[in-house]
Structure to design on (185 residues):
């Protein structure tokens, strides 16, 4: 059990049978009435963000999230197969569970998987990945003040805005949190 007075960003808690991570919190002590904690929580099962208010001193169950390193093996239809690097157990996740992550996932890539009491909640990608450009228009010089960009399609199917000097077959470093170009690899 954990008191809402001890909230920290990134803490995982269980509220009404759902698992949440604390994104933001604020302790409020009004001049009249009891103190309370206003919080912004992200549901780890469906990704929704909710705002909840708790009475000061209220206790909640702490959710112990287990993180393990796994390797992405292959896809078959809408199912994606992973292997635990320690036990060599294989399991599958669906397209709905990996919607954003599929933009960056390549075969044989190592990622971390989060689970709660055996239930897989999702995967955590590294902050950046290297992806090869498979399609882009040639850059045209002129008529640009500064920072001109063009669209490039990378090997996973993601379209990224890149500088004009990027060509097909270039390997780029892409930020997995925002899906943006960082640099050439």
């Amino acid at each position: 059990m954990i008191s809402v007075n001890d909230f920290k960003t990134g803490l995982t808690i269980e509220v009404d049978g759902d698992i949440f991570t604390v994104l933001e919190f604020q302790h409020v002590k009004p001049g009249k009435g009891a103190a309370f904690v206003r919080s912004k929580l992200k549901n780890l099962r469906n990704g929704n963000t909710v705002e909840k208010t708790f009475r000061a001193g209220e206790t909640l169950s702490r959710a112990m999230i287990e993180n393990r390193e796994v390797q992405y093996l292959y896809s078959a239809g809408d199912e994606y197969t992973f292997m635990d690097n320690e036990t060599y157990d294989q399991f599958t996740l669906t397209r709905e569970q990996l919607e954003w992550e599929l933009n960056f996932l390549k075969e044989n890539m190592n990622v971390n998987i989060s689970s709660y009491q055996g239930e897989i909640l999702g995967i955590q990608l590294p902050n950046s990945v290297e992806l090869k450009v498979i399609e882009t228009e040639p850059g045209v010089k002129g008529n640009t003040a500064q920072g001109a960009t063009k669209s490039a399609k990378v090997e996973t199917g993601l379209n990224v805005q890149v500088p004009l000097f990027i060509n097909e077959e270039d390997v780029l470093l892409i930020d997995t949190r925002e899906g943006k170009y960082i640099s050439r690899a």
Observations:
- The chain has a mean pLDDT of 89.
- The first strand starts at residue 2 and ends at 3.
- The chain is about 0% helix and 55% strand.
